[in-house]
């Protein structure tokens, strides 16, 4: 979907990034076809507009529960949403009705507790957080309410968590439809316990998962009319046979081999087993133990689980005898015989293992050696016994090991089915499919071809379902659905399975024709499909071919296609083991029916698988499907690491993006009226102010915008292709204009505020300064006054002092002068007196003498 036309300056977008696949940014500038982007990590890049995707800047920080509700359904948006949720331990997210489960690689507290089961019981989907229990609950309720069988399809690449998810589904279904513990060995208990048994024999450590299921599985849980589990059946698909004899470092063979090597000593002695390092089928890799796994403990646990699923002690003994026999068989080596192209058991050690194999399989050692080293050739005249060279004998040995193991596995599945028991009167069932996801490696062989074929089939089923669901929503909303286009992959399926002329049919033909080999098979493909748009002949290829699958192109190497397609039990092996004295072993190799024995014993694995798939599809088509897409967040199998590229690849191949594409083909965006109004009401405020019904208001807004390509349902608006982006672009423009106006006002206000503040500052500064100056002046004046005062005082003091001094001097002077005057006067008077007296005395003689005596 090209959204570039709606990208404007200021748009929030996703831009491709080498490191993190996508990075968010904002458009700074647009020049022609190029946009200048400011990325969230601080860079500025120039990118073609067509390489940008719009981002919803208003999406909640904790992500969106259901990704179909995202405003922009594009790859980066989905990826970011999942990463955000994974970061807060929300491992489940819906994409419509599909549940995406991201492997946490750690147990999340209280995620699967009984109380959580209780919460999800009967809760409508969407009411609680997305959960695997919600899907199981919906399936169960749909089954009870509509009386229709349901199925849950769990897919994903190896290590994505399919098996764990399937176990959770089973537990929840057992919780809903189970029986009381007092009812003894219940069906659900047996179904749940069948897991460890199947895992011991069908799981192995691979580089991608320490406990990888090497087979596909469809578990049918049957229910009675009361919704109680009444029976179950397990169907398995395509066990990886080659692993029995060939493993690469650091992988392991099937767990059961290591469990048996870790069994209690008396049992190991019984089967003459020891260190796994001594067995060729185990020592091709250096990995023997798994961290956190105790094989000795698991051996006992597997036996206990076998007890529960109804495998008796003798059968258990026979099973482990066969497992031990395979290990011994792998240690038989061959040397070149005397006759040309002949071989014999190489040495004493190989002889010991041959004898042990024969003993454990309860067959004749010589017959075993012959079966390994010789072949019957039927000519028109006679039956000739032909010797095999050492390489041929080794191939024969490995072929026998693979056949025995796959028969043993099939027996186990059959036995589990018989002992759990099917309910012929069952009303309906819930099927859980745990199947390998799309695979594309450096080398892709027949296994990948079958796996990808399965995924194409499931993808078609998925597309049809998603398409149907879309249709149903349109019908519910009472709108025309003829616009929805159906994305179909029938052409790839025709290429693979068409009869005659499809790749499988041509492969079968090549397997039957005597002189055919992988090169002639490939040449035939090149010739027949040279114009097929889903088939590619790589340049210079002699035996490789590529198929354009829905999830991408896969290049297949056809080298081992013919061998791997032949499900051919060598008659010598068949005769040897059907004659075993052990009824269990003989039972694994029932004699061929008479008519088949005469005809060709070739049976095509590809065709059988195709038939199995057809049956599976028939079953699935008769059920209401639910999808769970498991996603592996990183390739290092560690918690809390979300690798964008790894997840993106899985979203593509898991069909999640296809589902999104189907959605996009019609009217991908569905919004309830109120959601639409709250987001786009800003485009027509007058409509919001008017007293309209929500539906009418939505219509008015769309009318005002003059847009085409929308439908109005009963509760939702359906928007076609880019309409959401167009509306958002208009909204962004409106927001930008509004923002500019707001900005203008804010700037004016800020500037005014600044001016006033500055002015106030100046006045303050001035008054402060004036204050300082006035204070200084005042101080000067005060000092002046003080000085004057001091001067005055001093002067006064001095004047007073002078005055006092002068006065005192004056007084002293006066006093002196007065005293002097007085004395002068006195003296004058005395002289006067004396003169008088003299006069008197002279005049009054006696009187003066008398006066003088009185004094
Ligand atoms: N929901 C979960 N919670 C905790 N750990 C999980 C969960 N799902 C998966 N795992 C972890 O991831 C590992 C791989 O999961 P699982 O075996 O289910 O993958 P798978 O998709 O079935 O792989 P394969 O196709 O190889 O069998 C598990 O062993 C477990 O450790």
Automatic annotation (TrEMBL):
Binding residues annotated for ATP, in chain numbering: 156-163
Lineage: superkingdom: Eukaryota
Domain Myosin motor: 62-732
GO terms (BP aspect): actin filament organization; actin filament-based movement
Keywords, comma-separated and alphabetical: Actin-binding, ATP-binding, Calmodulin-binding, Coiled coil, Motor protein, Myosin, Nucleotide-binding, Repeat
Annotated stretches, region: Actin-binding: 613-635
InterPro entries listed in its UniProt record: IQ_motif_EF-hand-BS, Kinesin_motor_dom_sf, Myosin_head_motor_dom-like, MYSc_Myo11, P-loop_NTPase, SH3_Myosin
GO (cellular component) term, any one: myosin complex
Listed Pfam families: IQ (PF00612), Myosin_head (PF00063), Myosin_N (PF02736)
Signal sequence, start to end: none
Chain segments annotated as transmembrane: none
CDD domains the UniProt entry points to: MYSc_Myo11 (cd01384)
GO molecular function, one term: calmodulin binding
Domain named Myosin N-terminal SH3-like: residues: 8-57
Family indicated by similarity: Belongs to the TRAFAC class myosin-kinesin ATPase superfamily. Myosin family. Plant myosin class XI subfamily.
Protein name, entry field: Myosin-16 isoform X7
Source organism: Cucurbita moschata
